[in-house]
Design brief:
Blueprint lengths: L1 H5 L1 E4 L2 E4 H32 L6 H19 L3 H22 L9 H23 L15 E3 L4 E3 H23 L1 H11 L1 H6 L4 H23 L11 H14 L4 H21 L7 H12 L10
Antiparallel strand pairs: 1-2, 3-4
Helix pairs in contact: 2-6, 2-9, 2-10, 2-11, 3-4, 3-5, 3-9, 4-9, 6-7, 10-11, 10-12
């Protein structure tokens, strides 16, 4: 086994070992976990509401700040924040949907994109004015500190937890939407709202809760990110462009496409940092171009 891990090959003039490739690919799963959670929230909102939510990165940031404020102002620790922060930010998302977003459902997608882009700037500006841009620390919970040897590298316990927690939430969301009567009702409401409403379903309330749920997914990812990255108003900017690429590659509105593509692109990005570091920042967009040229609806997208 050790002989296989120590085997090296040359790529673009760089000597790469199998152990290094596996290690970076495994670490890439951490970014992939954030990509999957964020793109899943975007896919839920677009697939069910047809809104391109450009404020998703700002609401991801709000999730991280909510966990920081719960800890520093109320003494509420990390694990309760995993529930409370998405709930609070999700309620804020419901408020946005009821007051602003709901006015755009019958308009072109461009209006939603412009409005949510403006909302993102406003939210980031408010947090920047109050907390600054330098970043605030959020300590890893004591129980998740340290690292575990997994055969070819020491995996930080917290980062392993991030992958498992994100995977669980993503699969649970997929199961609710695809395998339950609630999900069936929701999908039917997006196809033919008047018919579903005729059966006594409160479609506007269902849509509002769906938007809040998509926002809660972004906030959950923000709580997971808080101990890894400094909590700052611009932290969503590092993810949002790649997350939109993930949604496009997976297929706009595809739930499973967002999950699989998010984790896969995180691994690809991590391995690229080993074999050809110069391309690590652009490899996701190269994949997006290739997919759009060969399968414009995305890997998991459905035909109209």
């Amino acid at each position: 086994m050790q002989a296989i891990l120590s085997y090296s090959f040359s790529f673009f003039g760089t000597n790469v070992t199998i152990a290094a490739l596996l290690g970076q690919g495994t670490l890439g799963l951490i970014n992939g976990a954030f990509y999957a959670c964020l793109s899943l929230g975007l896919a839920v909102i677009f697939g069910m509401l047809n809104i391109i939510n450009f404020a998703h990165g700002a609401l991801f940031m709000m999730g991280a700040f909510a966990s920081w404020m719960l800890l520093n102002y109320l003494g509420i620790g990390y694990f309760p924040s995993l529930i409370l922060s998405p709930l609070l930010v999700g309620l804020f998302g419901i408020f946005l949907e009821k007051t602003i977003i709901s006015r755009l459902y019958k308009l072109d997608h461009l209006y939603g994109l412009l409005l949510t882009f403006g909302l993102a700037l406003v939210i980031q500006g408010l947090f920047r004015n109050y907390y600054g841009s330098s970043g605030l620390p959020y300590q890893i919970p004591h129980v998740l500190q340290g690292a575990t040897y997994i055969g070819f590298m020491y995996m930080p316990n917290y980062r392993g937890w991030v992958v498992l927690a994100a995977l669980f939430v993503c699969l649970a969301t997929w199961a609710i939407i695809e395998k339950t009567s609630l999900g069936a009702t929701l999908r039917a409401a997006t196809e033919n709202a008047p018919l579903v409403q005729a059966f006594g379903v409160n479609v506007p309330r269902l849509i509002t809760l769906t938007y809040g749920g998509g926002i809660a997914l972004a906030a959950f990812a923000g709580v997971l990110a808080a101990p890894i990255y400094s909590v700052n108003p611009n932290m969503g900017d590092n993810f949002i462009n790649i997350v939109f690429a993930v949604v496009v590659i997976g297929g706009m509105g595809s739930i499973m496409g967002s999950i699989v593509t998010g984790f896969a692109l995180g691994v690809i990005e991590g391995m690229t940092k080993v074999v050809y570091p110069q391309a690590s920042a652009t490899v996701v967009f190269v994949v997006m171009v290739i997919v759009l040229l060969t399968k414009p609806r995305g890997l998991f997208g459905k035909a109209a």
